[in-house]
Amino acid sequence: MKKIGFNKFLNYLIKFVAYIFLFFVLFKAGVNAVLFPFAFGMLFALAWANQKVYLLVPAYLVAGLVNSFNFENAMGLLVCVLFLIVPYFIHVLCKKNMRKWEFLIYAPLSQIGNLVFEILSGFSPIFSVVNIVLGTLYMYCAIIIFEAFIIRGFANKLTSLELVSLFLLVASLSAGFVNLNIGNFSLVKLFVSFVMLVFAYSSTANLTLLVAITSAVGTLIATNNPMYVTPFVLWAMCALLFKNHHKIFMSVGVICIEIINGLYFNLYATFDVISILPVLISVVAFLLLPKKVLNEIAVIFNLSKDRLAMKNVVNRNRELLFKRLGNLSEVFNDMNIIYRQMIKKNMSKEDVVKILNDEIKSKICAYCPERNHCHRTFAEDTKKVFDELITIAFDRGKVTLLDIPSYLTSRCKQTTAILGSVNTLTQQYKKYISMLSDVDTSKVIIADQLLGVSKVIKSLSNEVESNVSFDTVRENKILDELTYHNIICIDAVVFERDIHTLVASLVVRTSDSEKPRIVNCVSKICGCKMAIYEMFPSSRPNYMVVNLKTAPRFECMFGIAQKTKEGSPKSGDTYTILKLDGDKILFAISDGMGSGEKAENVSELSISLIENFYKAGFDNDIILSTVNKLLNLHKEDIFSALDIGVLDLKNGILDFVKMASPVTYILNENEVKKVESNSLPMGIVTDISPITKKEVISADDYIVMVSDGISDSFENDEVFMEEIKTIKPSNPQQFADEILERALSKNKGYAVDDLTVLIIKIFEN
pTM higher than 0.70, yes or no? Predict the structure, then answer.
């Protein structure tokens, strides 16, 4: 315990000394030796950063008195700290943190003492007012830096505003150090050379030159002497020259430049061995800095190199993926062709009759004593009778004695055997044909799926064919804008997915991820309305990845109303509303034949298959053909009427696919459009021809989709259309409920069939 207490005391002592030194340097930092705004600004900024006030206040007083020990200065210092201590302890008692805007009030008020003494001394207060303004601005910049480092940490890139604030801090320290020379030992050289080497190693060339110039400007405004401008810039240029080599080359280069500055160019008033020591010490300190620390600092200033490499990797991977997906698409297409070549075509009816005719002759007539008489003398008549019997057996299912002509029964003693053989052979052949048809249908289904997979893979290949164009300018603006609104975002990537879609991926603090300001800021910078479409935890703890993309032109709302047929345990109507990729919405109603559990199963099966096929990206034709064939494979009759709509929210194009479904209505203030269907339900025949239609929708349109239980409740479609025209809905759900109620009222409240109403309201996004 004693050791812990001593360590804590030692830690406080080191901080106290560091604060004294920092404040003393800033007390020396002035503008033309007239304005000294930096020290009190730093005091309030450190207090905002939750540094211990009981260490800051005495350190500030000690540094101020050491800098200038007189009554006026002492009273000015006391007034300054009182405007910090009093509000601070009031907030401690109230258990509330002091907010940033409060510091913008307390900091200017803290300089009232200096202002009063200046007025009492008969001087113009203009300098004190300017000093207060500059100090308050300096405090705000220092708060921005502390906010970046203390709240976000050192592993985040600085925004433009934070970089400006950091350079101002460097300039103020340079202005203070330039007045603290110890003989020929220059503290400003020690400070600037070390900072400049760190910047040269960890940031860009522009930032390195900027920090050198900023430091030189700090010394210039403090002394009105441009002596350090040229040396600082030459240091930066030399360090950048050897940046891509080992640190030691940068360090040796800076030392050589310093020697040339002093001995060859005579840039300093005096130059000796002591004059070189500050640069030598800073170089040693720089060389001793671990590479890990320098790499962490590099993240603060610049991520462009790493991110450029990342972007190149992304585009290279997309190129490789494009080639592999293209090859894979060809493989599945070849497999589709092979399966279609394996399909066996059924023989014509004439060929089947001939084969069965020969079979009957070989089986029944082969050993008949009248064989030659029947098949030679009356060959044509006998063949005609056999062909007719086989045809009748195929058409009616069986033949009887009444189907045999009298002239044959009068001379043939094998009529019973012929009838039995015809019936048996035709039944066997029908079963064979059915089995062969099922096998062929299965092959067609597999071929269709292979073709569909080939098209989906080809579509994916086309999506990744082009390189991703990253927008670095917008990325930096987003980082700055979010930081300005106190939303911590450690990385942002902006790129164009296609000509219509801009995508932004942000890594933000989890506590900020739900803030609406994110969408507003990104939309403002991207120049279009953006919407969040995905959010998931980042690999970095306590951070979320928020993905946004260009919001589609339209959005929609849904209303659904249903009622099961009276006395039926389950409804045969099933509906779905599904969001697809590419800003598309699928909505559909499937009406299974009849009502009850069987109809429900058929309806759910149809909808489930269609949902999964659409989500996988298959075409309409392949989806409907495959689902129809799967239903058709069942030996029991299972049929389903299907009504599908696929709405593209980006351009307002609505694709309808209808199979034996009731009329769909598109309703707006001016007109009602009808979308009709006259095709057979799914599952009846192998080959289907669904009704497809394309419509352009507008904002405030209502799409009315119903099952046949609703439409059949009205006399005809025209009556139903006139009925819905009279409804003035406030929302789609109220519209659906009203249609259901009116349909029930037509049958005195009795549901004669399963009833389903699906309403879609379109509105401008």
Answer: no
